[in-house]
Every structure is written in structure tokens, then in C-alpha cells.
Amino acid sequence: MSLNAESTAFRSALEVIRAVEPRVADAIGAELADQRESLKLIASENYASPATLLTMGNWFSDKYAEGTVGRRFYAGCQNVDTVEALAAEHAKELFGAAHAYVQPHSGIDANLVAFWAILADRVESPALKKAQVRQVNDLTEADWFALRRELGNQRMLGMSLDAGGHLTHGFRPNISGKMFDQRSYGTDPATGLIDYDRVAEAAREFKPLILVAGYSAYPRKVNFRIMREIADSVGATFMVDMAHFAGLVAGKVFTGDFDPVPHAHIVTTTTHKSLRGPRGGMVLCGPELADQVDRGCPMVLGGPLPHVMAAKAVALAEARRPDFADYAQRIVDNAQALAEGLLRRGTTLVTGGTDNHLVLLDVSGYGLTGRQAEQALLDSGIVTNRNAVPQDRNGAWYTSGIRIGTPALTSRGLGTAEMDVTAELIHTVLSQTTPGANADGTPSKAKYVLDPAVADKISKQATDLLAGFPLYPTITLS
Ligand code: DSN
Questions:
Q1: What is the pLDDT of residues 315-342, one digit of tens each?
Q2: Which residue(s) pair with 211 in the sheet?
């Protein structure tokens, strides 16, 4: 029997790798086997297409390409220009953006590029202007001192980490919380929802240079029209980090007030979450910030990864196909079915449900910390991650929550009926797990007790559920 092109490609690649370091080839094979067998519910993960994966394994990786298309610091970038321009073009068309910068290596990098672009655009500093217009050698030590002081006094208002915001939205241990004088807005303690009046009040009091919207663990839509009005009312630049829900924007599930692109001055994203591309980041903006954004490398980022930009072009082309909109809608249908299945079984969900791709469980009702729940689920073949819930009493390490998301399982083809089975498996594990104790008998936030027979049974049920939805069905490695 002749092998299909995808199996041939991956088998040949592994053969070549095996000849040099067989343990790496083995680990790659084992990773596919593990991913095939586990119920992947990590909200920020997905399965990129074989075409996207294959695009990353080639000689584009050998090329330096600092600068931007047509303006490089290295010679010989004509082919990198081709793929970078293609990726940017697909991104602009897909999201309706005036400008796209596809070099960031991750979401954090994309956010740093955006922060710097906003600072460079907005901070009224003669020294900064000189530094931008190549009079940098004319700057005195006093100019540099003044510049650092002006940059260091800028303000950012973002969503707090425990309400679902991201580390880079001003969380103090992160560099964003040190670069900026920062404040956070949270969610209404009664509903778990963003209270736009409170955000407006915080913005009026604090007068930030940057208002950030977007989240990693907020299970609801955000009204970006209202957020832009708040930003405008205090003269702030409005930035949206859509890393988690970019696939829902691309698939036109989030439109109108819930599509950030027409409302924000600048939008950042990753490309590997609900968007289902290669690991990486991207910035979208209007013409007024485009020049500053394009200085991302080498002013903020290390050399771009041309092989990843090529893969972004492939994945973005896939996201422009009509079937991606269907995929995006199924992500949300599945998340809502999963939420309903959990609610029916008595699980507490932050905000009581979901409008997007993720569901946030408060596992304190099961008497567990997030860490105990995460490990018990993992023992049972269910891969999730622990996450803080609003006003979390267990802090960001142990937490009281479990975040689950449906982009990956939806890519495998699971639907709403399978989400109800998944809810049953999760509920069974959590209700059968009890907190453990430390050696001295004190309660542990990490140890837990789960009968291995229960974990094995659930693992088997998870594998059976997945058997009808093979991962990478066109690829056989042996
Ligand atoms: N690590 C990503 C997530 O899991 O949401 C965000 O950086």
C-alpha cells in the first residue's frame, strides 16, 4: 500500500533525525502518541495542520532577517520577504486590519512590541523624538536621564490576573508591571463579569496612557466598543490582546462590538491558540502606529523566525477558508455544552457559563485546590491547567480553579454530545478526589488522594471517547 504524502513526509523526517540523535526522534514520536491518547482541554493549545507543521522544518530557519520587508539589516532576504509579506497580507485580509506585523515570537513579545510602539508614539519627550530620528548621538547624559524618567512614569490599566487578565497586562511580577505605573480592573464579585462603569471610574481616576483589554481566563465576551469609549474619554491608547480568542474573531463568531480590530488602536495576538497556527505572535494596527510597530526587530525582539513566519502564512491562509468559520462556531458550541454538562452535575463555574472557548471551574466546591484537581485529572488522562479564580484565596501557584477550553478537541472533531461525556469524566474525577496531608499531618494544597482504579477507569473512558476522533488521521508513523 502506498503511503500518503503526510505520512511519508513525517516518517522521512524522523528517519533523518534518528540517524543523528535517536532519542529526539523517539521523543517526537512519543509526543504524538501522548497527544493522541489524552483529552486535551488546555484552553490555549490546539493542533496545527500538517502543512503548518511541515512549513517550520526547513532552511528558512537558517536565515537572519532583522528589519522588515524590503528594509533588512542583512542581505539575501528576498525569500523571507515573500513569506513575511504573504503572512502579513493574509492577516490583514482575515482581520480587516490596515497593518500587520508578523515577527513576534510569542504573545508576550507581541505585547512588548505594542507597548514600545505606544510609548514611542505617545510620550512627549524631546529626547525620545531625537532618539527616533537618528540624532541619538546628540543626546546628552541629562537627556537620557530625562528620557528614562519620562518613560518610567507612564501608566497602564489592565485586567487583573485573578479576574482573567494576562501576566503582561500589568501583573507586578511581570516586566509590564515594572515598566509601567499600573492599576488593574477586576470583575464584579457577585457576577464575575466586567463592570464597565467600574472600568470607566478607574480610568477617570488613574488616567492611563494605555488601557488594555483581553484575557487568558475570562469566559465571556468583552464589549470593545464600550472599552474604546472609556479609553477615548481619558485620552488613553486602547490596546487589545486577543491571543485567546483570535480564532473566534477570524471565524466571525465575535463581530460588531465584540470584534476588537475596528475598535482598538492596536491589537496583539498569538497564532497558535484558537487561531490554530504555529507558535508565535502578531500585532495589528492602523497606519499611525505602523512605523513604530515595524521597528519591533531589532529594537524589542531578537531576529525574526522566517520558518515560523512562513508557517503563519500557511495557517492564516487556512483560517481564510470558509470551513474555519464553522470550526470557530463549533469551538463555542462545544464550550457551552461542556459548561452546561458541568453545571448540571453541580460544578461551580466562574460567571456561571461561557460565551467563548473556555470554561473556568471553581473547584473549591469539591474541597480541592486547583493544583490537586489538575494533577488528579492528569492521572485520569485529562490535560487541563490550574488557574486563579477572582479573589482566589489560594494564590496564583495552588489556585482554586481549573481552566478548560475546547479549541483542541474541536479540531479533532468532537462535538456537543462528546462534551457531555467529557463533563461526566471531569466531574467523576473531581468528586472522587480528596485533599491529601503533609508528613506532619497538616493539610496539603498539593497532595491528593485518588483511587488509581478510578483514574485508570476514567483514562480508559477518555481513550475510548477519543478513538472515534483520531488525531492527525492521515499520519501513520509506523
Ligand atoms: N500561556 C498562555 C495561556 O495558557 O493562556 C498565555 O500566555
A1: 999 999 999 999 999 999 999 999 999 9
A2: 157, 238
